[in-house]
Amino acid sequence: MVTLTKAERVYLRDHTELDERWLQARIADDPSLLGLGDDLILLNKEVIQPKAGRLDLLLRDPSSTQRYEVEIQLGRTDETHIIRTLEYWDIERKRYPQYEHTAVIVAEDITSRFLNVISLFNGFIPLVAIQVAALRVGNHLTLQFTKVLDQVRLGDVDADLEVQQPATRADWDGRSTKEVMALVDELQVIVKALDSDFDLKYNKHFIGLARDGKPDNFVVLQPRKQWLRLAISLTPSDESAAEFEKAGLKAEFDSRWRRYVINLEPGDVKKAKGTIEASFKRALDEWR
User: Fold this and answer.
1) Among residues 116, 149, 182, which one ends one of the domains?
2) Residue bearing the bigger pLDDT, 22 or 112
């Protein structure tokens, strides 16, 4: 027979032993407690911020470029907690711009007033608010983390193509180099070998794909002056990661857009053509 036992709320702010450092240590031991991902790992704690104190916890997702700047406060959140969290997030994103950064506020009591305030930032600043409750049942204590404000996710890269400013091949030829634009042509050959109905669609900020005149972007290209950023919509896997590495391609999975991102230099497509063809085929199969 199942016995119902009522849990007792324990307020950590008023506890003589279970203080903020204790809570910080529990999250550091098992970052998955926050509910931000089962595979999160601790990069560091008490990270010194230049002229701005110490960041409680710095976490990362090993399967992507995502990092989380986590600030903890016992009791009720206040203005200084919010400002400190955003300040540390800003320092880290400027220090390591190659990663995606999300600010995380953890507090025992996030009031509706401050929830309204911090929700104003969401959409402009990637921000997550988590309310923590310590519960005692007999001699056992458990921690309950509830996400009260989640990060607003941007739409897919092609979701707003109807309002994207169009561009031409000539526009991109003027912005990049002949060698880098040759990579675009080499990748187009690979795509059309999979499905001849695909054509390149030139937009102001990226080159996508279109079929029958409609955006169909399982691959996105962004030429730069010396290299090309290739994004492939493909589910992350050890197999894909191993293939990219074996081919000498440094691929990172971007969890925000759910794509593998590879920076290609002139000559890379020819050297790794087989791997790129295989990844394009898998991506197209998933896309369909």
Assistant:
1) 149
2) 22
